[in-house]
Amino acid sequence: MTPHRTQPLPLDGITVVAVEQAVAAPFATRQLADLGARVIKVERPDGGDFARGYDTAAAGLASHFVWCNRGKESIAIDLKDPRGLHIVRRLIADADVFVQNLAQGAAARMGLDAAALCAAHPALVAVDISGYGAGGPYAHKRAYDMLVQCEAGLVSVTGTPEQPVKAGIPAADIAAAMYAFSGVLAALLRRGTTGLGGPVEVSMLDSLAEWMGHPLHHGMHGGTAPARTGVAHAVIAPYDAYPTADGGKVLLSVQNDREWRRLAEQVLNRPELAVDPELATNRARTAHRERTDRVVAEALATLSTQEAVERLDAAGIACARLNTVAELAAHPQLAARDRWRDVETAAGPLRALLPPITMPGGEDPRMGGVPELGQHTDALLRALGMTEGATAALRRDCVIA
Length: 401
Description:
- The protein is α/β, with parallel strands linked by helices.
- The chain contains 17 helices and 11 strands.
- The protein has a 6-stranded parallel beta sheet, sandwiched between helices. Strands 7-8-9 form a 3-stranded antiparallel beta sheet, with helices on one face.
- Helix 1 packs across helix 7 (171-194) and helix 7 crosses helix 8 (204-211).
- The longest helix has 24 residues, at 171-194.
- The chain is elongated, with a radius of gyration of 26 Å.
């Protein structure tokens, strides 16, 4: 019998150099690190990636930074000094992938834009992540996540009828990160057949505009954008979060009229509602949404959260608890599937979720430690052949840290 062999991580042997900050590029390169790539993170000597200073919520460390930067090596180097830029160019010369999300035009001024690097290194995959893209009237406009959420229309369709709100997570950053991640994988696959890497361009606006596909098509082709409905659904009823007797909330979704009949008979204990002309069809229920929500809310208000979920599950009605962040951290499904690991940091081990991509039969994701600023500077410079004296001189001149 042939012995079982564990598959290696798919990006084992791939080296990534990243001049990155905040969320979009760091989250993209963290996905690459989890899948086995070596990621060298280039940071400023005077404080590093500014996300390090966002907060101190993760045992004294910044929660954004801990989330987006595990498994990387940190080199702290001043790119404005020609000596520092030369070192980064040497690192890139030996890399497979380069990623940057500097302010528009900054990388090009240093010759670190994707087009220039790929011209010099044909096998390199080089990624430019920007707010609005390289051209057009918004090219040089500042592009923080909340601003792009507004420009992309996400805020206009999120919230209540009275109040638009931004998403509670950095949706524009995450969207750009995931398209950069998938763009790198596609470019590496193409390189495997052609031998050529090439530039990859991703903008936060393009990425989030793609995620706005449903409201965008609804509005362009239907004449009006979907209304803001809180956690309710604009065109389905009942589809909302309803209070329970113990102070919780349960969200339920009735997708068709068969489910409405089951809800009326088995959960609401009011079978007559199944044939009520104002409630029997989804079109009728959305037209009489206030009454629909009232009859559902009255029934669930007499049940505990657990009782409501059990009754809805038994009736085959899609439902969910409206969990808090703390309840997500203690979620029984994540615990049962062993989705938590400890990640090493300067503050000690911190819990982190396994990445969503699971590859049965392969090595576990490489969830390395969160680097301190400049933690790997000396080792990386030694690997480039730099002497201790040369390194000391660069540190004395504040070119490295």
